[in-house]
């Protein structure tokens, strides 16, 4: 009897152990699988990488099915990189790339819903893909109209509705010539480095350069626009840029010009200027001053302070550069012709040091139709005024020293 009772007891313990084991297996918690976030916006490739995550990695390429809804047609409005979210061995992440083929409104969404899985419990099971308003980027050329002399720099800039924006990685946009253009590519102008604008990583602006081939009456306008605009981008003030072919600045210099204004005098007076110079002594022009350009070079007829700098001289064309106008709002970039000309760089009646100096010239027509010559003097070593300012700028190592602290004068064309 004792032996029989022991056998029964052992059998009971075995069954109890088995039942206890089964009970423990039934209470084991399965990994939770869920979308990483609820809303996915498009990137600059019109794509969204939708991610599903798990609280534990999977050992065998487990897959989670999903359904798509929202009224859009696969293959027409969008494509999917896969029909399932598949976890690689040892991974707790799975992705599917959704690419939109057509632009959609802010109200249109593509909804993804995870299907139940036997090996996991669902967490966040629904996500949407579409235009994320908070992620919308504004694109615009920095101005509507540009002038092409020997060349022209066209600037594209990005911003956010809320303000500034910088790229996480370099972005390249293709540009095309709008049919409304009258100038012909390859005949009147060319693209210096291809039809693309690249905005470097960490920046918000990129530049496209055009070069003049020839000027022809009636065929002087180039209209540019982005060829393919990512859906994440929305147009700002100027989604097109008009470039008017003006011709070589060197040729535009020819003629007689009379003095009009010292245009950045107020800028000098309002800037800090280190508080070291008397700005009432700044060199000024007079209404009787004239500059005359011809094929031989520059001839002067000056009675004001300007006679202490300018000399009659032949001109050496150094080419055009893009310079910023510090005195104007937004510091606009303009194309400026730089020449070498004989000048008294001391800008003084009593202290003379003549050498070939770099001088900037820009010719443009004002809104009221006045043809204007802008003269920028940045290669000078003043002794009668700005002496202390010059010494400070010289220590910065720029060449010429006053490159970013010039004197700027306007002259108008004598008819």
UniProtKB/TrEMBL annotation:
InterPro entries: CalX-like_sf
Entry keyword set: Signal
Signal peptide: 1-16
Gene3D superfamilies reported for this sequence: 2.60.40.2030
Protein name: DUF4843 domain-containing protein
Native organism taxonomy: Bacteria, Pseudomonadati, Bacteroidota, Sphingobacteriia, Sphingobacteriales
